[in-house]
């Protein structure tokens, strides 16, 4: 099967399962089990329950999928404050 034959859907993560798997409610109403794609693991992109995601599925098995993208959400940034993780990265407050 070629990569061109994969179908993409958007959905909402409803539950985190063991072994880096997630239960995803698709916008079409179906519920599937999905795993994290390799690039998301490589770049350490964390997915939590309630996140909007894009899922890639094979047309032959519509019960399983692969998370390929986590959509940004407005609630992740704090208005009026420093960006999340600014203190951990060092930045201008690093001692020399």
From TrEMBL:
Keywords: Cytoplasm, Initiation factor, Protein biosynthesis, RNA-binding, rRNA-binding
First-listed, main subcellular location of the protein, grouped into a coarse class: cytoplasm
A matching Pfam family: eIF-1a
Signal peptide segment: none
MF GO annotations: ribosome binding; rRNA binding; translation initiation factor activity
Chain intervals with Low complexity compositional bias: 84-96
Record-annotated S1-like domain positions: 1-72
Keyword check for rRNA processing: no
SMART domains in the cross-refs: S1
Localization per Swiss-Prot or TrEMBL: Cytoplasm
Subunit record text: Component of the 30S ribosomal translation pre-initiation complex which assembles on the 30S ribosome in the order IF-2 and IF-3, IF-1 and N-formylmethionyl-tRNA(fMet); mRNA recruitment can occur at any time during PIC assembly.
NCBIfam families in the cross-refs: infA (TIGR00008)
Free-text function comment from the UniProt entry: One of the essential components for the initiation of protein synthesis. Stabilizes the binding of IF-2 and IF-3 on the 30S subunit to which N-formylmethionyl-tRNA(fMet) subsequently binds. Helps modulate mRNA selection, yielding the 30S pre-initiation complex (PIC). Upon addition of the 50S ribosomal subunit IF-1, IF-2 and IF-3 are released leaving the mature 70S translation initiation complex.
Family to which the UniProt record says this protein belongs: Belongs to the IF-1 family.
Identification of the protein by name: Translation initiation factor IF-1
């Amino acid at each position: 099967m070629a990569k061109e034959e994969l179908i993409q859907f958007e959905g909402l993560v409803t539950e985190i399962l063991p072994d880096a798997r997630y239960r995803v409610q698709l916008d079409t109403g179906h519920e599937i089990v999905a795993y994290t794609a390799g690039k998301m693991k490589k770049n350490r992109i964390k997915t939590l329950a309630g996140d909007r995601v894009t899922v890639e599925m094979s047309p032959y098995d519509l019960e399983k999928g692969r998370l390929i993208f986590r959509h940004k959400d407005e609630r992740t940034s704090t208005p009026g404050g420093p960006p999340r993780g600014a203190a951990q990265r060092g930045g201008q407050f690093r001692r020399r």
